[in-house]
Write a structure and sequence with these properties.
Largest sheet: 2 strands, antiparallel
Helix content: 40-55%
Strand order of the largest sheet: 1-2
Order of helices and strands: HHHHHHHEEEEEEHHHHHH
Radius of gyration: 24 Å
Strand content: 5-15%
């Protein structure tokens, strides 16, 4: 590469990037990253990652945007297939977009197109004209389509930053990515699974017992623990859906107002006072720094998973939420390095 902005995790990663998208980003990355286009830059990366002839050959296939792709037994839903990415939800119909938002989308798509032109993506022999060719118009519309795909379906790309103990590790955002299979998982403000990222690999783990036939649930906004219901609704509206999870329907309090002790009223079935006290002590122990610093992440994972898989404490409860968070931290330490 002729620029100093790009970093690669390996030689093979560098070679792949240089043979696909990087030549259309090299020396203009500062312009792209300072443009304020955020996650939409992934749409630019999607288009730049394939040559113009590839997209021209796909033009006929792109005439039908089928968001139900893969639902029938005959359909195949593969994250590696560009048709899967193209057919992800965009909410093109049924949503009322305001003029400023539409203008921003159009200007951003045109900006991305001009970036591609500046890097000779269209193999033009003269300076770009103010009038777009048929091919350029098609690519601009494709950029716009993938911008909406990214907006409604992308995940944060995360990375583990090890600290002095598994419970102190930090997980930081390093970018944005598309995971078409994971994007199929519906939302709840009280999710029952969590992700761990290692490079291009994403692993999904249950953070509590998920019974047969029970839906696996992700979180698109803040959880009920961290965000009040009005703040969450603002995010849900932005992504064009109403949340009807238990925490929203029953207006669960944020973590500051949750119970910190386990008593019989928090238990789903009839058990003795002695067992209730034992449960209370057990959950309180794992939230203590002394216990966390005295075990490794493997031991922590095993104990926390056992506690949560057999948990009879009703949601919402602060001690159970803390145990789920600690399990996620232990999993990051075990599988995210």
């Amino acid at each position: 590469p002729n620029c100093s902005m790009a970093k690669f995790c390996s030689k093979s990663c560098q070679e792949k990037a240089c043979s696909t998208h990087h030549k259309y980003e090299c020396l203009i990355q500062d312009t792209l990253y300072k443009s304020g286009t955020g996650a939409w830059q992934l749409a630019y990366r999607i288009v730049a990652g394939k040559p113009l002839n590839f997209w021209l050959k796909m033009k006929k296939s792109f005439e039908d945007h089928n968001e139900d792709m893969g639902l029938s037994e005959a359909g195949v839903y593969s994250s590696d297939d560009i048709m899967t990415v193209f057919n992800m939800v965009t909410h093109d119909t049924g949503e009322s977009r305001q003029a400023p938002q539409l203008m921003k989308e159009c200007l951003t798509a045109l900006f991305f197109l001009r970036c591609l032109q500046s890097k000779n993506y269209f193999c033009q022999t003269s300076q770009p004209s103010s009038n777009l060719s048929e091919e350029e118009t098609y690519i601009a519309l494709l950029l716009h389509h993938f911008m909406r795909v990214v907006f409604y379906n992308s995940h944060e790309a995360m990375q583990l930053v090890p600290e002095s103990g598994w419970q102190k590790n930090k997980v930081v955002r390093i970018g944005v990515c598309l995971n078409p299979s994971l994007a199929l998982i519906n939302h709840s403000c009280d999710p029952n699974y969590a992700r761990v990222v290692r490079g291009r690999q994403v692993m999904a783990f249950a953070t509590r017992k998920i019974r047969q036939g029970e839906e696996i649930l992700d979180v698109y906004s803040g959880t009920y623990l961290k965000s009040d219901i009005e703040s969450r609704r603002e995010v849900h509206t932005r992504y064009n859906f109403d949340c009807r999870c238990h925490s929203c329907q029953h207006d669960w309090p944020t973590e500051q107002l949750l119970p910190r002790n386990i008593s019989k009223k928090h238990i789903e079935k009839d058990i003795s006072d002695k067992v209730v006290k034992k449960l209370d002590n057990s959950f309180k122990e794992v939230t203590q720094t002394r216990w966390q610093s005295g075990v490794d992440s493997c031991t922590a994972r095993d104990r926390l998973a056992s506690m949560l898989s057999n948990c009879v404490v009703s949601h919402p409860h602060w001690l159970v939420a803390q145990a789920e968070d600690l399990l996620h931290r232990a999993l990051w330490d075990l599988f995210g390095k």
